[in-house]
Amino acid sequence: MAARRGSAVRSTATRKAREPRSPVPPAEVTLFEGAELEPESELEALAFYSSNLVDQDASSVTFTQCRLRGADLSASRLDQVTLTDCLVTDSSLANVRADGGSMTRVRLAQCRMTGVTWADGVLRDVAVTECRADLSAWRMTTFDAVTFVGCNLHSADFTNADLRGVVFRDCDLTSAVFHHASMEGTRFRGCNLAGVGDLTSWKGAVVHHTDLISLSYGLAQAAGIRVEDEDS
């Protein structure tokens, strides 16, 4: 049986961090005027400007060189969705479920992604900037050349994710979960790491010295050290 996209056998080598490659722009775009997404549809060089696509149920949809601005796809079920060379700005992906989905050369900026579920998928050359992605779930997803900058990732779930080479910068990762994640070369700078779960998975991660204060309680707990809040 063939392995699923996000569950392939992983190398244990460190993946070097690099900046994501930029999306290839389309020569021109055509305004999308539909009212819904059809399963297995192939959407190319389309502009989804202020599109209302709430609560869609469409698997295996392909977006290629599309532009989404002010689009609302919240509460949609988009399993096996594919985005390639896309720009997504000021849009809502809140509570979207996209198990097995993939993104390649994608930019997401100022988007609402609260509660998004992107499990067992692949993100390659993806930049996520100033997005609200609290309570998001990325279980078993593979990340390659991905940056999260200025994002709210409070209580995000990266269980069993391959995060080697991912960069988190100026992000709120309070109470995020990294259970059994692969984190060799994962970099953190300017992040709030208070209450992060399962620091035993952090072997090989690179943490800026200014982030150690918020991480210190978790490190102490992992080492079996009891921290007293009051003078004894």
Structural commentary:
It is a single chain. The chain is mainly beta and 232 residues long. It is built from one helix and twelve strands, in the order E-E-E-E-E-E-E-E-E-E-E-E-H. Strands 1, 2, 3, 4, 5, 6, 7, 8, 9, 10, 11 and 12 form a twelve-stranded parallel β-sheet that branches. The radius of gyration is 18 Å and the shape is elongated. The model is unreliable at 1-9 (pLDDT under 50).
Helical residues, percent: under 10%
pLDDT averaged over residues? 89
- Outline, from the CA principal axes? elongated
Gyration radius, in Å = 18 Å
Which band does the percent of strand residues land in?
15-25%
Give the class from helix and strand content and strand pairing: mainly beta
Spatial gap, N to C terminus: 60 Å
Report the uncertain regions: 1-9
> What's the story with the biggest beta sheet?
12 strands, parallel
